[in-house]
User: What shape does this take?
Amino acid sequence: MPQQAQRRALIKLAAQLKAEAERQLNVNSEQSLAIADQIFNLGTEEGIRALGTLARADALRELGRYAEAALAYADAASLFRSAGDDVGWARTRIGATFNARYAGDHAQILADVDDARRILTENALWLRLTRLENHTGGLLSGLGRPEEALAAHRRALEAAERLEPRNELLEAEVLGTLALAYYQVDDFETAEALNTRATAVFEREGKLELAARMRRNFARFAAGRGDYSKALAAVLPGRRTLLELERIDAAAHLGQVGVDCLIRLGRPAEAAELATLVETEFESVGGRIEAAATHGLHAVALAQLGQAEAALVQLQQAEVLFGVANWDAGPSNVRLGRAVVLGETGRWREALAEAETVRDELRLRGSVVRAVQADLVRARALRALGEPHAAAAAAREALDLASNRLLPWLSYHAWRLLGELARDTGDEAGALRAFVEAIANLEQVQGRILTEYRATFLADKADVFEAAVDLLLRRDEVEQAFNMVERAKSRALVDALAGGLDIRIRPISPQQAKLAVELAGLRRKHDALVEQPEADGELRALEGRITRILEELRLAGAPDLERLSLLEGRVYSPQAQLGARTALLEFFRIGHDLALFVMDGQSLRAVRLSGALPRLYRLQTPLRLNLDAAIEEPHQRSKLEPNARALLQRTYDVLLRPVRGWLDAYDRLIVVPHGRLHQLPFGALHDGDGYLIERFEIATAPSASSLTFCLRPRHRVGQHVLVGGHSADGSLPGAIEEARAVANLYGDSAELLLEDQLTLDSLKGRAREADLIHLAAHGVSRLDAPLFSHLRLADGRQTALDCFDLELDAYLVTLSACESGTGAVSAGDEQLGLPRAFLYAGARAVIHSLWRIDDRFTRTLMERFYSELKAGRGRAAALRIAQLEQLHGGTVLHPFLWAPLSLVGDWREETT
Assistant: This one.
C-alpha cells in the first residue's frame, strides 16, 4: 500500500477507535482508556497522537482524574494545532470545558470557547457544538453566572435542533441541563417541565441510564440549593436503576448527593451508612476524587454523631486519595472538612486556622458554597474565642457571598450567628432583626422539605424561634410573638392541611408499583414479628426498611413542594371562630421558662412563667408513677387519689394560677400544649377548689393554626357512624361490649364491625364515607418509633403510617384504646402518633387516651358521651358531662379512671 494511503488508513482507523472510545465512556471508562492506548500504538503521526490523547483525556475525566485530564486536554489541543486541525482543536475544548468545573483554569477555557464555537459553527458540526455549549453552561453555572449559563444551554438546544435527522435523545439531554439553568434563576416551573420532558424521552426510548443521569444532575443542583426532598426524590429511584444496570460510578454519584442531603436533614447515622457504600463504589471504578469527596462528607456525618476521631480518619483517607489523583483542589476540600469537624467538636482555635488557610483559595476557585462554609466556621470560631467584632465581620462576609447565590440554608446560619452576636452584646433590636431574617431563610428551606421529614432537620434549629419569641416578649410585642410561636409549632401538620397535601401512597411508575408490592410484604412480615420479643433486632431492621421504602414512595409527591413553599411562615388564627366565653391558651417553651398566650375573640394577652419547666418536670415523674400504681394496684386507688390530686394542684399552680383571674371570664378552654405538656390531663388539673373540668369545657389542639383547619366546614353533612371493636384474641371483652353499646345508640345510622370483620381493608374502605368513627381495640404506643404506634385489628395493625392513607371527612374519630394519644414530640413541637395522623387524614376532632384505660369505666363514659353528642351537645361539652358523671358518681375516684380521655380539635356541636 502506498505510504499516503497507509497514512490515511491509519488515521481512519484511529478515528474509528476514537468513536468507540467515546461510546465506551459511559459504559466502561477503563475500557475507553485502554482504547486510547490502542490509538497511540497506531503510530507517531501527530493526528493519530492527538486523537489518542483526546481519547485519554476524556476517559480520565470520566474516571474523576481531573488534574490528569486537564493536562491531557492541553496536550491534545497542542497536537491538533501542530497538525493544522482546527476542528480537532475545537473538539478538545468540549471535554476541557466540562473538566474545568473540577480542575480550574476557568478563564482560559472560557476564552477558548468563543473560538471553538466559531469553528464548529462554520463546519456545521451541530452535535459537537451542542456538547460544547452544554458544557459551557455547566461551567458558568458552577461559577455563579446563571444568566450566562442559561444563554449557553439555550444555544445548545438551538444547535441540537439543527441536526438532521432529528436526534430526540440529544435534545432531551440538553433539555435536562437547560432545566438546571432555569432552576438556578428560580424559574422552578419551567425547570420542572423541562426535566420532566427530558426524562420522559429517555424512559420512552428505554434509556434508563440517561434518565437516571438526568436525576443525578438535577439532584446535585437541588441539594446545593437546599431542596433536599426534591434531591432525594431523584436520588433514590435513580440510584436503584443504575445499580440494576451495573453503572456503579453513576449510582455512586447519586449516592454522594444522597449523603449530603441526609447530613443537611439531620440524619447523620443514615448518611454515614450510605457514605460507606458510596466510597466503596467509587473506589471500585477508580473514581478517586469522588471517593475522596465522599470521605469528606462521611467525616461531617461522623462529627455530628460525636465520633470526632473517626471523622478525622475519614479526612486523612480523603487527603491520601486526593494526593494519588493529583487534584490541586483536593487539599482545600480536606482543610475545609477538617475545619468543620474541629468546629463540631469544639476545637475552635484549630478550626479557625484551617478555615482561614482555605477561604481565599476557595473563593479564587469559584467554590462559592465552600467559601461561605469556611467563613461561617471562621465566624463561629471567632465568637467562641471571644472576638465578637471579627466574628460579626466574618458572618457578614459569608452572608454577602451566600446572598449573591440565593443559598437560604447558608444565609440562615449567617443571620443566626449575627443574631447571637448582637444578643451577646445587648443589642436586642439588632438581634431580633437578625433572628427574624434567619427564620425567613430557614422557612424557605423548610418549605422545600416534605412535611413528614422536617423533624430531624429542625432538631438543632428550633431554638432560633425561642430566641425571637423571647426578644419580642421583652419588647411587649405580644401579637408578633404569638405569630412567631405559630410559625414554629406543628408546621408539618399545618402546611399539609393548608396545602391540601395528599400524602397517600400512589405509585406512579412501574418501579414505584414494585416498591409498593415489596412494602406490602414487609408489612405482613412486620405484623408477624411485632408480638415476638425475641425478634426485637429483626423488627427494628424491618421497620428501618419499611421507613426507607415509604420515604421513596412519599417523595414522589415532591412536586407538591412548589405549592407548599408558598405557605412559608403563614399563620392561620382561629380568633374569629372562638366565639363567646371561649379562650385559647397556648404554651411555648423559652429555655427554662414558658410563655402563655391567652386569646379570646377580642384580645390577646401573654404572661411569662419564669422557671416553669424545671418545676413542671419535677412534678411529672411522681404523677406518672402515681398513675402507673393506680393501673397496676386497683385496691390502692383510694389511697393514691389524695397524692394525685396534690400533684395536679401543684401542676395547676405552675401553669395556670398566674392567669386565674383572666380565666374567670370563660366557660371553655382550648389548650395548645408544648413539649411534655401534651401528655398532661388538663381537665384533671386542680385549682384547690375543684378539678378544671368542673369549671370548663376543655379541648386541645396541636397549634392555633391547626385548630383553624379543624374548624373548617366538612364537605358533606351526614350521620353515618362507623363502629369497630376488636378484643385482641379475647383479652379485651369490654371492647366488644363498648362497640355494641355505641352502635345501639345510633341504630340504623351505625355500621358495626366486630372481631374478624374489623380488618385493615374494611376500615379503609368504609372510613371515607363515615361521619363519625369509633374504634375500640388494643392500642400500642411506640415512643421509639411513633409512626408504628397502632391499633390491633383482625388481620394486622392500623399504624399511624396507615392512617395517612385514609380519606376522611369525619367530624369525630374516637380511639378507645390504651395510650392511643401517647406520642413522641419532635422538633417543631410535632406530636407524632395516631391522633395527629387522623387529623392529617381529614378528621376534624379526635378523642384519644393519655394512659391505659379501664374497660368498664370507659364503656360507661362512652355511652353517656354519645348520648349527649346525639342529643346535640358539642364534642367538648358531651365529654365534660360524661367525665363529670363518673367523677361525681358517689365515691372518690382516682383521675386514672375518669380523666384519661382528651379531645383534640373541633369542640363544637356538629351541625346537620
